[in-house]
Please model this.
Amino acid sequence: MNLLLAAITAWYLGASGDLQLAQGGGDMRRLGGAGLRAGAYVAELLAVEGDVAIMENHARLGVNGLWHWWGYERLDPFFTFGARGWLNGGDVGPMGGIGTFYHLDRHWSLRADIDATLGLERKAEMIYGFSVGLQYEF
Model:
């Protein structure tokens, strides 16, 4: 446990506006809402985060990884991967996507994400997600 905490280089917290588009039927439909993310960098280019979002009639939970594959001082793109699920009759499955940070200064960043979750448990075959928000790095 101490080794893991020693590997963490920075913590962050963010808020976003989210849009989810479910494909393939089921009781999910287009959902809008707000989300929160909390995470930690375990290496210079790799972060682990948890996310939660409150949608119109569903709540979303996820555990994700971020891998920064290329970046400049201000624009910092990344890949996301992990697992995501929806409470209240939603799907659970693996998730992958892309995103970018636009760093305003050392602590504050604008963040945009586009991702897809493969639904494994119910009728929605694929759930596409879009989010835009603000993030603070400690």
